[in-house]
Prior knowledge:
The chain is an alpha/beta fold. It has 20 helices and 33 strands.
Amino acid sequence: MNLQNVQRAYFLGIGGIGMSAIARYLKMQGAYVSGYDKTPSDLTDQLIAEGIAVHFNEEQSNFDTEADLYIYTPAIPQDHPYFNLVPIQHQWHKRSEVLKWITDHTKTIAVSGTHGKTTTSAFLTHILYQVHGQSSGFVGGVMSNYNSNLIAAPDSEYIVVEADEFDKSFLKLNPEIALITSLDPDHLDIYGSFDAMKKDYQAFASLTKTLLVNKRLLDDFKEANHSYSALSNSNNGYEGANIRVVDSQFRFEVNHNGEHLGVFTSQLPGRHNVENAVAAISIAHILGLSMEEVAKAVSSFKGVHRRFDRVLENAHVRLIDDYAHHPTEIKAAISAAKELYPNTKITVIFQPHLYSRTRDLEDGFVESLSEADVVILLPIYPAREKPIDGVSSANLLKKLSLKTKQLVEKSHLGKAVLSLSPETVIVLGAGDIDRSVKPSQSCLKTGSQMWNRALYIVSWIFGIVLIFVLLGASVVSSKRALLSDIKVNIDYGEGNFFIDNDDVTEVVSDLGYEIDSTAIIEINPGKIEHVLENNAFIESAEVYEYLNGALHIDVQVRQPIVRIYSQNGQSVYLDENGKFMPLSRRYSSRTPITNGFISIKLNELIGTDINTAVDSIDHPDIDVIMDLFQVVSKCREDEFWKAQFNQFYVNADHEIELIPRVGDHIVLVGNANQIDKKLKKLSLFYQKGLNKTGWNEYKTINLKYANQVVCSKS
C-alpha cells in the first residue's frame, strides 16, 4: 500500500508505544488520524495535544467508518467489538504490516532483543539524526531529547526501527542491518517454548546481510558479521573498555578488533546502558560516520522516558521510573540504582505485566526482586489476557524472602511508600503503573519538604527541649518494638472458606503473642507457620514482619477436588495434591462427589496422601481411589469437563463412571489408563455424535477401550 494516498486512518490501540509512532507519522503525512485506547495515559494526552482524536469508550458512534486505513495491535483481544465494524471494502492491518510498508523503500536498521532494544534504537536514532541528518526512527519509548517516539526526516536515507518479537512482528521486516541485543525467554504465550523463540530470532537474523549481535549470543548466531560487548577484552569485534564513573557519568573507550575508536561519555546510568551505547556506536562505525561527531552525539543523549528515568532526586529521597518488566531488566535496574546510590535502602514498586509472563518467569522474578531491600507489589496488569488460576501478585509476594514486602492497590500506593521511610524508590512495570509515578513523586516530595521543616524546627528548639525529645523518642522506639497489629491474608482458592482470620489470629494468641505487649524480637515466625500448617485445612503459611511492628500472615487454604462417600457412612475430601482431608463443620466445599462401592474406612486415611496409601495399604479401594484422583484431576484441566462432570460413581466392578450435568447418560471410563485419549474420544463423540442425535439418545457411553466409543441405549 502507498501510504502517501491515505487520507484517513483509524487505530485500535492507539495509545501503544509502537502504534502511536505510526499515528504520528501518518499525521505528519497529512492524514486525519483517530483511534481508540482502553485507558488515558501521558502518551494519549500528547497525541490529543498534537491534533489526533482519541476516545476511550467502545461506543459504536466513535468508530470512524470513513477511514481508508484501519490499523490494530495484537495486544487488543480478538473479541473486541470494533473488529466487526470495518466497512466491507476495507480490512484490518497489523501494526507490523504498516511498519513494513513504511520501511520497504528505505535502508532499514532493525534493533531487536528481549531487552535493551528500546534504549539502543533510541541511542542509534539520536546519533544518526545528529551526525547524518537524513535519518528517521520509530522507537519503542519516548526519547527525552525530542519528547517523542518518532523522528521523521524528509527523504531519509536510513530508518531505525525497534523490531518487536511479540507476535513475531519482526519477521515482516527486510533490514539492511540487523542488531540483536539479548535473548532470554519471554512471550512464551506466543512461542510456546524458548527453543521456538530462538528459531524465530534466527529467522529474523537471516533477513539481513549485515548482522551485529551481542557477543553472548554468538553461539546462537554464528552467521553474524559483527559482534559487540562492554564486558569482554578479547580484541575481537567491538568492545567497550576502561569503563569508569566520572562526575556521575559513565566514561568509556570503544575499540574495534584492537583499534581504538575513541573515548565516549554517556549520561545514562548502569553498565548495561554502556553496552547499549557500544552497540549504537558499532552501527555508526559500520556506516562510516565520524567517531568524533558520534562521541558528541552520545554525550548529548538524555535517554528514554521510563528507562531509569530519574524523576525526583534530593538530599533525602530519589524516585526512578523504569519500564522493566522482565527479570533480567529488573535486575539491571536495581544494580544500576545500587551503583549510583550506594548505601541507600532500595525500595522497588513493581506491577507484573501479563498473567502468562508472571507464570512462565516466576522464578526469575523472585530472584531479581529479592535484590531489593523492600518490595511493594501491585496486582498483575492483564493487558490482553484473562486471569490464570493460581497466578497472582499475592502468590509472587509469598515467594519473596524479603522481610519487608507488601501487596497494595494503586489507590493506596502513596501511603504505603511513605510509611516505609524510603530512600531510593524504583517504579517498575510495563502496564499502567506509569500513571502512579507523578502521585508518588508528589507524595515523596511532600514528605521530603515536611522532613526539612521538621529538621529546621527541631534544630531551633533543640537546646531547650533536648531531654523531652529524647524521652519521646525512647517511648516511640519502645512502642515500635512491640507487636502492633496482625494482618491476615487468606487465599481461599476456589472459595473454600474452611477457616477465617479469627482462626489464624487465635493461633498467634495461643502461642502467647499479644498485641501491644509482646516484643517483635520475641516472636518466632517459624513456630507460627508450623502450628498453622498442622491445621487440616491449611496448605501453607508464611509469616513475616509487615510495617511498624505489624505481623503479616499469608495462608493458603487446601483445595479439595472431590468428596468421597463410603458405604459405611464415612466421607472425606481428596485435595489437589492427593491428600485426604476431613470435612469442615463450618463450610461444605463445592466439589464433585463420588459414591458407590467403596467400603474402606475413609476416616483412617485423613492426613495421609494417596501415593503413600497405595504403597502401604492393601485394600482394593485404594487403587480405585488413585484412579479416581487421576480422572478428576484430568477433568479439572478442561473447563468444559470440569463443568460437565459434577458426580462420579464407583460401580461393583470397581470401575469409574462419570455422571454428566447435561445429558441422560453415564460415561464409563473404567480406570485412569489413557485418560487423555479417552476424553479426546469423548469430546469428538460429543461434537459429532450427540450434537446430531441428541444428548439423551444413549444411556451408556463406554470409553474403557480408549480407541473406540461403544454406546448402548439401554
